[in-house]
């Protein structure tokens, strides 16, 4: 069992102690096993992440058939890239074009396509992002360094139900001779949430 | 409930500060709190919307001054105590002098981990035909339920257009109080920025929400 008798100068925070106490009680009560908790943490730290969504985006860039399938039923289309071959139902892919830019938020909590992008970053869960994105999307995107032309309309998707959204960004220029695997390296989490663009070929970030 | 969690459109929260190369969990306790919440959420003692409502019911001052996983931790403690699974003094003393209750689905062991890494399914057979169709104008009703709802305040009373019919889904306003799934049609409703924010809207912006049929009314 965890002990609280840390030497003076311990860096264990109050929250750390509180969580250790709770875990200790849940295990004593036979509600959970420590190994099962380890496995949940490990899956999210090592296996489930934005590389899953990136592979779907890259495939959509090289295959018109796959792109159509992704836009029609993203749950089915992304499944082959998922951790265990399964994505939650009602995943919806929304496509950026020259005229429309999409960005995803959850104002009521922090709904996010975990099984496609991993757990959300702190900024996505922040009160600032949740409050401002529906009201000042252009300003928010500019703070991420994404300055959209006034001719590009902005569509904000507030994830208020069990639907989950994945932005399909535009393929960067200068990648005509890139294959699917190379393209996937340009696709990061931010561009699939809609607060960024894919990386440019040539390594510029 | 018109709670502090319903943040859409509020001002004063400052700039958004992205972190470079952010780790999945910043502290060990965050991963443990997340994993315990996931495991106990799968125990069959409460559902996803009861869990969300647990966070919404935190006192506003606590909500605003807590980090994301701290909210999860406080919610988990609240739910465990409310459901009689742990006693408050057990959390303080870090030990339990009694055997735990038998959980609906038994002890959460490693074999069950794959099931919680998958998202649950919330689509259901509809109870009747949908009232609205794509391209139809609808108004979000001006409702203020005291319990959990998924219609954010900033769209209530506003008129939008049905963009997509998403099928029948488990109705959060019902399952939150254990009244059954009561599946309702779900729609994506698109609002023009000006309809929501008037002259203060940024030009060329639209916002959509996914709204259950009982949240909507026809516009004559």
List keywords for this structure.
A: 205 residues, alpha/beta, Nitrile Hydratase, Chain A, 2 domains, 11 helices, 11% strand, B: 220 residues, alpha+beta, Cyclin A, domain 1, 6-stranded antiparallel sheet
Descriptive notes:
- The complex is a heterodimer of chains A (205) and B (220).
- Chain A is α/β, with parallel strands linked by helices and 205 residues long.
- Chain A folds into 2 domains: 14-46, no CATH class; 51-193, Nitrile Hydratase, Chain A (Alpha-Beta Complex).
- Chain A is built from 11 helices and 4 strands, in the order H-H-H-H-H-E-E-H-H-H-H-E-E-H-H.
- In chain A, the strands form 2 sheets. Chain A has a two-stranded parallel ribbon.
- In chain A, helix 3 (51-62) packs across helix 4.
- Chain A is globular.
- Mean pLDDT of chain A is 93; it is low at 1-8.
- Chain B is of the alpha+beta class and 220 residues long.
- Chain B contains 8 helices and 6 strands, in the order H-H-H-H-H-H-E-E-E-H-E-H-E-E.
- Chain B has helices at residues 28-41, 48-56, 60-65, 68-82, 88-93, 113-117, 172-175, 193-197, and strands at 123-124, 137-140, 159-169, 184-192, 205-212, 216-218.
- In chain B, strands 1, 2, 3, 4, 5 and 6 form a 6-stranded antiparallel β-sheet that branches.
- The mean pLDDT of chain B is 95.
